[in-house]
Amino acid sequence: MRRKIVAGNWKMNGSKDLVNSLVGQIRSELASLDNGVEAVIIPPALFVGDVVRQADGQIAVGVQNIACWDSGAYTGEISAGMAKDSGCGYSLVGHSERRQLFGETDEQVSVKVVKALASGLDAVICVGETLDEREAGKAEDVVSGQVRKAVSEVGAGQWQQVVIAYEPVWAIGTGKTATAEDAQAMHAAIRAVLKSLGAPADEISLLYGGSVKADNAAALFAQPDIDGGLIGGASLNAEDFVSICRAMPGRS
């Protein structure tokens, strides 16, 4: 059975006051939820400890980025081991903003996946095409290539730690979203790529990200290959985030 996951990426937003008000409210409102969804909060690294304390073991916590190294003279970097030691269970890897704004390559993404899995973190591997790539008819080729490179060093016993998040770059923070049918088509293509690599594709959770909101979450989550969402702005509002979690169909 694939995990149903709704992960909130706070990006570079938040404060201690927000942590104190938001996380406790989300934890309280999700306590009675029985649809099997696993909620994850991914705050800026400075707030990880505060979120872990507020989550109280009832909500999973992740980091937005990890280093390509285990330790050393890399000022400003955070290793996967540090994230795990701080109470994180997840790390985003290869978010489009890391790729576009900081020049992160497919090769670096692959290294970070290795580091995350070796440290016991679940890696949420982000993939997605730009608008130009989609309009040129290259979307599936681009995304398939990103997936293949990202998981190229995943060991046979590590696939249960792998989550793939498809985020079309043109839909992130724009208010635009792929139709449920378009999103499903790409998720099915990703699952086919994983299967071609010998991975247990039917056991790997695939998430959709890109302006997911309470009013479109149910249609997205109803698709057979979409197992949850990677949520941006809506994760900074408890009511919106909980509504998205509630939109997940119950386990069958």
From TrEMBL:
Q: Which UniProt keywords apply?
A: Cytoplasm, Gluconeogenesis, Glycolysis, Isomerase
What does the record give under GO molecular function? Answer: triose-phosphate isomerase activity
Q: Name one GO biological process term.
A: glyceraldehyde-3-phosphate biosynthetic process
Localization, per the record, is: Cytoplasm
What is the uppermost EC class here? isomerase
* InterPro entries membership: Aldolase_TIM, TIM_sf, TrioseP_Isoase_bac/euk, Triosephosphate_isomerase, Triosephosphate_isomerase_AS
Q: Methyltransferase: is it a keyword of this entry? A: no
User: What is one cellular component GO term in this UniProt entry?
Assistant: cytosol
State the pathway, as annotated in the record: Carbohydrate degradation; glycolysis; D-glyceraldehyde 3-phosphate from glycerone phosphate: step 1/1; Carbohydrate metabolism; erythritol degradation; Carbohydrate biosynthesis; gluconeogenesis
Among PANTHER family, the record links this protein to: TRIOSEPHOSPHATE ISOMERASE
Role played:
Involved in the gluconeogenesis. Catalyzes stereospecifically the conversion of dihydroxyacetone phosphate (DHAP) to D-glyceraldehyde-3-phosphate (G3P).
Q: Subunit structure of this entry?
A: Homodimer.
UniProt lists the family membership as follows: Belongs to the triosephosphate isomerase family.
Question: In its UniProt entry, what is this protein called?
Answer: Triosephosphate isomerase
